[in-house]
Amino acid sequence: MSVAELKEKHAAATATVNSLRERLKQRRQLLLDTDVATYTKNQGRSPVNFSATDLVCCRTLQGHTGKVYALDWTPEKNWIVSASQDGRLIVWNALTSQKTHAIKLLCPWVMTCAFAPNGQSVACGGLDSACSVFTLSSQSDRDGNIPVSRILTGHKGYISCCQYVPDQETRLITSSGDQTCVLWDVTTGQRISIFGGEFPSGHTADVLSLSISSTNPNMFVSGSCDSTVRLWDLRIASRAVRTYHGHDGDVNAVRFFPDGLRFGSGSDDGTCRLFDMRTGHQLQVYARQPDRNDDEIPTVTSVAFSISGRLMFAGYSNGDCYVWDTLVAEVVQNLGTLQNSHEGRISCLGLSGDGSALCTGSYDKNLKIWAFGGQRKVI
Amino acid sequence: MGTRSERAVDGEAAVGEDQAPPSEAASRRGVFIGKHRLAAAIACLDQEIVSLQKELTELETIEPSSASCKEVIASTEGKPDPLLPVTTGPENSSWDRWFQRVRSNRNNRWWAHKTSDFS
């Protein structure tokens, strides 16, 4: 076939793809007969009602000398690992505020960190395009630094996010600026699977975040600068299971809903969205009220759900930390305006294993722990 | 990271180069690269077409969003949630550990009862 014929074939295939995408978009629109908020309000439910002193900042974890970029809790204990612009990981006992480890990193430009399920190791990654793993019980050197136990190399771009597969100390997933996600065997340092890249249906821009389903740990979602979220099956690396369209900007954060069948996402377009994993439906958009003072729309940096899923916590680039009522789609509290709140952008947030506390990390160099300090009614 | 098509191209271009003058070889290589890149791109698009058609077919039998919305609401009910002002039980006493007296090794810092003013 000549080049000219191939070019014609390429143009025809492109036109077919565009036409199919348009048909899909229209068909999906017809299937969106309601959203979560409309359905909920039709049932006569009212928003969660917080009094001003219900959610309180009960700890401020000070110690980083640079912006906090990432944090992760252990599943069962009260420990948190945080990563900062100061080139360090700090492991905290969140209950006592004590620092149990301060790890100076070989590459100071760290972007993400994660705790192993058994709480014995931490992993991190960043502009070095590698994921470093530290065993916390390792003997520290003269300067008090823990040696790295394993370096996972292979990505061709920065590591934006890393997460251990639940209940598996030996498997970890990373997302990268090289447009792929990778499943690693931590003991051997080998890549088990690559999601995206050469194969079609992979992301077409930097991948910024990932979340693994707790109810089905074979499934994970990734959010990207290509404005989409993609669903992957760990057993099938060859193509994404589904692609979720809706956002109009980089998807900075993704997090599975507690039931493992839905997930939330946060984007540069200033919205959070709730998607249904199996059908692909966009179930709800969580959009801020436009503020006359906002020169630009604050972007969503981070998203997490309370243990029941009724609350969605969203961190924003302007320091707001909205508490959304997930069902009614209304903001029921803003941690950014409470006493002792952060003084800068919220970069990361996460719930403790039992859901009793939220930790937020900020460009103001601190982490804060928030818990319910009011009169609780148990029904 | 070269694509499979680009690595194949390099191999093929080397075969032609021995025989022809440099400028002809370069333009022939340009044609090889163009053809292979185009072919690879078309293969990708064809796979995408199959995938999109499959998704369109699936949508014919998929439930509307109202079914999923109902599931979302149901999934939030009956789950004890320490951060909600009103929640189903059972309540766990460890939820309030953040407000209880805690002795750390280094000092005797402790936190007041949960209803105290934190200012």
Summarize the structure.
The complex is a heterodimer of chains A (379) and B (119). Chain A is 9% helix and 43% strand. Chain B contains 3 helices and 1 strand; from the N terminus they run H-H-H-E.
What's the SSE blueprint?
The complex is a heterodimer of chains A (379) and B (119).
Chain A: H1 3-31, H2 36-42, E1 55-61, E2 68-73, E3 79-84, E4 88-93, E5 98-104, E6 110-115, E7 121-126, E8 131-135, E9 150-152, E10 159-164, E11 171-176, E12 180-185, E13 190-196, E14 207-212, E15 219-224, E16 229-233, E17 242-244, E18 251-256, E19 262-267, E20 271-276, E21 282-287, E22 300-305, E23 311-316, E24 321-325, E25 330-334, E26 346-351, E27 357-362, E28 367-372, E29 377-378
Antiparallel strand pairs in A: 1-28, 2-3, 3-4, 4-5, 6-7, 7-8, 8-9, 10-11, 11-12, 12-13, 14-15, 15-16, 16-17, 18-19, 19-20, 20-21, 22-23, 23-24, 24-25, 26-27, 27-28
Chain B: H1 4-17, H2 22-59, H3 65-76, E1 86-87
Helix pairs in contact in B: 1-2
Overall description:
The complex is a heterodimer of chains A (379) and B (119). With 379 residues, chain A is mostly beta strands. Chain A has a 4-stranded antiparallel sheet with strand order 1-28-27-26, with no helix packed on it. Chain A contains 2 helices and 29 strands. Chain A starts with a helix and ends with a strand. Chain B has 119 residues and is mainly alpha-helical. Chain B is built from 3 helices and 1 strand, in the order H-H-H-E. Chain B is elongated and about 85 Å long. The model of chain B is unreliable at 1-18 and 107-119 (pLDDT under 50). At the A-B interface, helix 1, helix 2, strand 1, strand 28 and strand 29 of A face helix 2, helix 3 and strand 1 of B. Strand 29 (377-378) of chain A pairs parallel with strand 1 (86-87) of chain B, so a sheet runs across the interface. Chain B: This is G protein gamma domain-containing protein.
